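Weekly structure sync, notes
Attendees: PL (lead), two postdocs, one rotation student
Agenda item 3: pending single-chain targets
PL asked that the sequence for the first pending target be pasted directly into the notes so everyone works from the same version. It is reproduced below exactly as submitted, 218 residues in total.
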Amino acid sequence: MIEAANLGKEVQSGDGRLVILHQISFRVMAGEAVAVVGASGSGKSTLLGLLAGLDLPSEGKVLLAGQDLAQLTEDGRAALRGRMLGFVFQSFQLLPALTALENVMLPLELAGRRDAGATAREVLGRVGLEGRLDHYPKHLSGGEQQRVALARAFAVRPQLLLADEPTGNLDAATGSQIIELMFAMNAEQGTTLILVSHDEVLAKRCNRVLRLVGGRLA
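Predicted structure, written out during the meeting:
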């Protein structure tokens, strides 16, 4: 599904260059659930951004379904993300001016889906929010906002789901509910999952754990 080959990322910092990732190589097969763990500052979120084509590496390459992301234009990478990827973020990333229903409909409408409304309602019902369709994010709890984000990610039936600390802003009980829901929907759709987390218990739920230490794969 996705391969990182000798992936490296450097940025300018003061008078020198700061190495964030160095010589990262791995493959994730279709249907796998893989956790990326490491201390704060180890490069986890940077790696996820590179895998999604939201940023480009300083060296090496990312192959998504055989396509080298660096060889695509920015529009080409966006189109590929739209077809294949779903995202769940720690900060939810919901649009405040849209209702829960409209937030979930948005990626479906962008994909030209005529059944956007019906599909969004169905998926929001799946995450237990059928009674909150017309609520705006500011009127939803953190757990409800993350469930909307989860519904939005799964509504397009992505081949690959990238989750960046999806329970980081939630209390333990709510976070546990979100994780159960994410793995259940992941199993139902056969989606490949790459999950960034500092939670070792959560990581053990995955098929495999990739551990970053100082920007290197341990």
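Discussion points:
- The chain is about 35% helix and 30% strand.
- Helices lie at 44-51, 74-84, 100-110, 116-126, 142-155, 172-189, 200-203.
Action: rotation student to compare against the earlier draft before next sync.
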